[in-house]
UniProtKB/TrEMBL annotation:
Domain YjeF C-terminal: 31-302
Job description of the protein: Catalyzes the dehydration of the S-form of NAD(P)HX at the expense of ADP, which is converted to AMP. Together with NAD(P)HX epimerase, which catalyzes the epimerization of the S- and R-forms, the enzyme allows the repair of both epimers of NAD(P)HX, a damaged form of NAD(P)H that is a result of enzymatic or heat-dependent hydration.
One Pfam family here: Carb_kinase
Keyword entries, A-Z: ATP-binding, Kinase, Lyase, NAD, NADP, Nucleotide-binding, Transferase
Listed name of the protein: ADP-dependent (S)-NAD(P)H-hydrate dehydratase
Annotated EC: 4.2.1.136
Residue ranges, annotated region (Disordered): 1-23
Binding-site list for AMP: K204, G205, A206, R207, T208, G236
Residue numbers binding (6S)-NADPHX: A66, G116, H162, D237
Catalytic reaction equation(s): (6S)-NADPHX + ADP = AMP + phosphate + NADPH + H(+); (6S)-NADHX + ADP = AMP + phosphate + NADH + H(+)
Cofactor or coenzyme needed: Mg(2+)
Any one biological process term the GO annotation gives: metabolite repair
Length: 308
């Protein structure tokens, strides 16, 4: 199996940061072989629970589509079961699209939280349900409208902001930073955020950057999109679903709270997302749902390239 260190150092930065980090980051570009090393193929001894159950609290009556997109992408990434536990409107739409989804509460191996939520419109009841998920001690993906709760999250958390959401996260912590500053130096800001908030950061963009919080794990990972057709509404909600499914299926390997593994899982989600976008696009325009629909065949092709 290829090492994550193969593919090597593309930019080594030593800088005086504007925020408290002095970490020197070696950035590697994630490869198909790296992604394959993280995708868990079901075995004869597996059943739906052994494969992993993903809990999803996403969507709102304002943004129900985000829930459908994330659920669809997670289902196509491959997971034993999805428990979708959201508001009424998205629940109806999710079940119309995917009757496989379970809407009853129960144990999960990972949570996907926040896509399609609006922190300012969230009810107290919804906030307390998200808090309760964060408090369960299972690995979590925090996206979009749950990012305000990052300071309350545990160690095994991956956050998936775009540059604007990351600027807001720092703003709430009392540090003003422009969205454009983050886009101009995503490696720095992903690293600084991971250290400041103690979470694994997947900073979205044409070049997605993944950084973990530990000072010992100095590797920062990049995933560079082959084209920009994926810059379309709901594309990030699809990424959240892919990541949630990969997190749930890798849950047995996350028990040691290794943040390095979280970075590998996050990078694989970004890789699968960009590969599925490329496959769906074929050089032309795509919708977010097109990306989700091509995830299964994209993973099959990745596994077919594996030389193990
Ligand atoms: N199908 C679904 O259900 C979908 C649901 N989605 C869900 O929506 C939620 C919000 O996520 P988001 O990333 O869209 O908004 P957000 O982070 O608040 O950034 C807003 C920034 O954009 C800017 N801006 C706005 N309009 C602009 C314009 N025309 N041209 C230029 N700029 C413009 C605006 O700037 P302003 O207008 O204030 O100057 C502000 O800076 C989230 O929960 C997500 O999951 C999405 O995934 C989409 C599909
Ligand atoms: N210029 C670009 N080229 C390629 N991919 C992009 C580009 N801009 C954004 N993306 C990708 O598209 C997705 C957008 O996510 P996000 O900003 O959360 O949108 P949404 O909230 O509409 O789902 C991310 O996966 C991001 O990496």
């Amino acid at each position: 199996m290829q090492s994550i260190y193969r593919g090597a150092v593309s930019d080594r930065t030593e800088r005086t940061p504007t925020q408290p980090t002095d970490r020197t980051a070696d950035t590697i570009e994630w490869t198909a072989a790296d992604a394959v090393s993280v995708i868990r193929v079901p075995r004869a001894s597996d059943d739906k629970y052994r494969r992993g159950v993903l809990g999803i609290r996403t969507g709102s009556n304002t943004f129900p589509g985000a829930a459908v997109l994330g659920v669809d992408a997670a289902a196509r990434t491959g997971v034993g079961m999805i428990r979708y536990l959201g508001p009424e409107v998205p629940t109806t739409l999710v079940l119309q699209r995917r009757p496989e989804i379970v809407t009853a509460q129960g144990r999960v191996q990972a949570w996907l939280l926040g896509s399609g939520m609006d922190a300012e419109q969230r009810t107290d009841a919804e906030t307390s349900l998200v808090r309760s998920a964060l408090g369960e001690g299972v690995p979590c993906v925090i996206d979009a409208g749950a990012l305000d709760l990052v300071p309350e999250s545990g160690a095994r958390t991956i956050i998936t902001p775009h540059a604007g959401e990351l600027a807001s996260l720092w703003g709430r912590a009392g540090v003003t930073v422009e969205r454009s500053s983050i886009s101009d130096d995503p490696v720095h800001w992903a690293t600084a955020t991971a250290e400041r908030f103690g979470v694994t950061v997947l900073l979205k963009g044409a070049r997605t950057i993944i950084a973990g919080p530990t000072t010992s794990a100095t590797i920062v990972i990049s995933v560079t999109a082959a084209s920009s057709w994926a810059a379309t509404a709901g594309s990030g909600d699809v990424l959240g679903g892919i990541l949630g499914a990969l997190l749930a299926t890798n849950a047995p390997f996350l028990a040691d709270e290794s943040t390095d593994i979280l970075s590998r899982v996050a990078a694989t989600a970004a890789y699968v997302h960009q590969a599925a976008s490329t496959r769906a696009s074929g050089g032309g325009p795509i919708t977010a749902l097109d990306i989700a629909e091509s995830v299964g065949v994209t993973i099959a092709e990745l596994l077919g390239q594996d030389s193990r």
